[in-house]
Design a protein that fits this description.
By secondary structure, the protein is of the alpha/beta class. It contains 8 helices and 9 strands.
């Protein structure tokens, strides 16, 4: 199947109206967020670049640690602004490598709360992917044993209020799903397209072994659809708007569309945006979904507002 061209290249000619809704937007996510109106997003779900040297298509994934955290603060500030009162932010973050361990989940939570977010909970996403369980240098010895996490975190925040107002008739989560999802230990197999990010950062393929095959664009850290489905059904209503500012190959957008939410997908990579547009186009063709066009080409141009500068250390 050929790659469709139906995604927006940012900057665009006009930012009037809901130009951002139900769109795959290719460009600098921070600049795109700055052009969006305040209080228009009900749920943001994302996993920022891991900063462990992964091979993303259009990103340097090896910043100095404090610079990395400072860089992310610019996104957190804009996310807070665009969320509606009571809006939620689900942040997926993985533990860092053993030898250079950084409690990045704690540091991100600290930064978000300092910016005004309310922390609601943390979900343990158990991935069941461990191949090695100790470092060989400490095998069967307490001298210097290491623990390798088989999970990632999903940290959940909200803006201003714990409650997100909406029409009860637009809540589509079943009783069985609600009971299951409210247990914050989620055992979900990871997406198998490409190597998993944490293991890839720790362990290159052993001598003589071929690296795992890269499929469907080879994004290094795609979300499993089940994870996104649970977050969307648990934390927002049908008709709400779901945003992913580091959208990758479009899983958040696809699942939002599937469950009758609007989506906003952003990514710097034209390759990933093209894959995302293709996935959305395929989703729209499903007979149970709305078949109205999801994309409206807009001519390129300059943004009309001056962009805020993000200070980096």
């Amino acid at each position: 199947m050929g790659r469709p061209t139906h995604f927006l290249n940012f900057p665009i000619g006009s930012t009037e109206g809901d130009w951002w809704k139900d769109q795959i937007i290719c460009g600098d996510s921070l600049k795109i967020l700055h052009e969006m109106p305040s209080e228009c997003i009900h749920l943001a779900i994302t996993s920022p670049p891991y900063n462990v040297g992964l091979e993303y298509d259009s990103h340097n994934d090896k910043m100095p640690y404090e610079e990395y955290l400072e860089w992310l603060k610019g996104f957190w500030i804009e996310l807070y602004r665009v969320l509606v009162p009571g809006g939620r932010f689900a942040l997926n973050v993985a533990p860092t490598s053993i030898k250079d361990f950084r409690p990045v989940h704690y540091h991100m939570a600290r930064d978000l709360m300092q910016l005004g977010f309310i922390m609601r909970t943390e979900i343990l996403w158990y991935k069941q992917t461990m191949r090695r369980r100790t470092a060989w240098g400490s095998w069967k010895s307490p001298r210097n044993p290491h623990m390798v996490p088989s999970w990632e975190y999903v940290l959940v925040f909200c803006k201003g209020s714990w409650a997100l107002e909406g029409n009860k008739a637009d809540a589509d989560i079943t009783g069985e799903e609600f009971i299951k999802y409210s247990d914050a230990f989620w055992s979900i197999q990871p997406e198998t397209r490409g190597r998993q990010p944490f293991l890839n950062s720790l362990y290159p393929p052993r001598n003589g072994r071929k690296p795992p095959e890269q499929k469907n664009g080879g994004h290094p850290a795609p979300f499993p659809e089940e994870l996104i489905k649970r977050l969307i059904k648990f934390y927002c209503y049908k008709g709400n708007v779901v945003l992913d500012p580091f959208g990758g190959t479009g899983t958040v957008a696809v699942v939002a569309k599937r469950y009758d939410r609007h989506f906003v997908h952003m990514d710097l990579s034209k390759k990933y945006c093209s894959i995302s547009a293709e996935r959305i186009a395929a989703e729209i063709k499903q007979p149970v979904l709305d078949s109205s066009p999801a994309f409206a080409p807009i001519a390129e141009g300059r943004p009309k507002h001056k962009l805020q500068k993000v200070t980096r250390k």
